[in-house]
Amino acid sequence: MDKTIEHKDYLFKKVYDYVLHRIERNEWKEHEKIPSVRQLASEMNVHRLTVLKAYQLLKKHDKVYVKDKAGYFVQSIETKHLENLNQNNPIVSAYLQKNHLSEIHQSAVSYQFSQALIDPNLLPNHYFSDYVKKVFDLYPKVLATYSTVQGDLELRETLTQYFINQYKTHISADELLITSGSQQAIHLIAQTFIKPRDVVLFERPSYSAAIDIFKAQGAQIVTVDIQPEGYDLQQLELYIQQYKPRLFYLNPTFHNPTGYTVPVEQRKKLVELAEQYRLLLIEDDAYHDIYFDEPPPPPIYTYDSAGTVIYIRSFCKYISPGLRIATVICQSSLMNALLTAKSLADNGSPLLNQKIFLHYFSSLRLQQHLEKIRIALQIRKEIMEEELAITGWQWTSPKGGLNLWVQLPNNFPTELLLSKSFEQNISFVPGQVCDPLKQLSSWIRLSYSYANEKQLKEGLKRFVAVAQSLAK
């Protein structure tokens, strides 16, 4: 390639990435005017035609729009049907505009079907006081020192032995990183391996926080549908060839929000594809131990021998959300880069949390606790399914996890259902928030894990009544 052309292409990408990065990080707000072509060309010391070319491509990608004689402005991310919302409910309005869960989770409701968290009354709260005392006896200076960036060595060695015993894998403590929950792990991975305009594959639907994290990093998301039987692997390989993605973020075990589990054969094939096309697989595994009848297949990372999988295992949901303990497993070449990002983020997760978790995780009480939680959650799932049976709605009954992914009739007014549900002290998650394309308007996520059995029955009866009144 001619070096002059190559240089111009580099400058164009530099301008495009700069503007996109500012927009994705919300430094330039919706409908805010961005610098003129002349101004940005002067600031970046490039030709005005280079800036104009970048602006035109940003316009084509719906990142900016033009006002006659006024210049370029940041495009709104509002959905086209926003004007049909009940604007009298600011929570509904803000929630659907931003596609964030934060607004809905901040709303105090009596019947909580939006939180993919376990009822605090099911967690081992009384036992933890014993372990806190034990930790202070064993480590009297635990509050007077930091953990290492990579995480407490004693905890990493314990978890390493756990994974070796559980999955017959060959890993060392040096291949584990302790993070403050799985969301921090996803954030570190996005920061480390993604730059603006990199293509990232996502399941559709997917975990909403991960969608937001990668978009904020400037990633271009390409979606792969997930079904009860897994993925269309031919379509997946075609997308890998066509888009050359940097990584594929996936949640293959009791998937959030659908509850689907990818079968063993596909797990093996995913590793082969990743190795063949030099693709990173980011396996997010937050619900692995929350199964009802039988354990799920081994994680994808257990089939990986070439270092193509970064495995995130969270223990927060069913032990103690407040401890915020998760672990990342990957080969040393990837680990070194993650350690740099972790050191800049917090210089290491809190040592006290790690020590408390360590001693509870190593106890017999944990296994007894897990067995009780599985039974309690299976009962709650069955209650939800029984209460929804009269609706005629569709769903695939999950074999684990915390959520029911429910399909409503086509053209059902989901936004209005959300608004009316709030009026009845009920919350749920519209499918759009779990969709990178913001289109799954006839789907909703209902979590059966947070409300107790009485609340489930009462709240779902109210919810079904609201939905039936809207259907009429």
TrEMBL record:
Residues 9-77 form the HTH gntR-type domain. Its EC number is 2.6.1.39. Pfam families: Aminotran_1_2, GntR. PROSITE patterns: HTH_GNTR (PS50949). It comes from the Bacteria. Its cofactor is pyridoxal 5'-phosphate. Keywords: Aminotransferase, DNA-binding, Pyridoxal phosphate, Transcription, Transcription regulation, Transferase. GO terms for molecular function: 2-aminoadipate transaminase activity; DNA binding; DNA-binding transcription factor activity; pyridoxal phosphate binding. Homodimer. Belongs to the class-I pyridoxal-phosphate-dependent aminotransferase family. This is 2-aminoadipate transaminase. It comes from Lysinibacillus sphaericus. The gene is lysN_4.
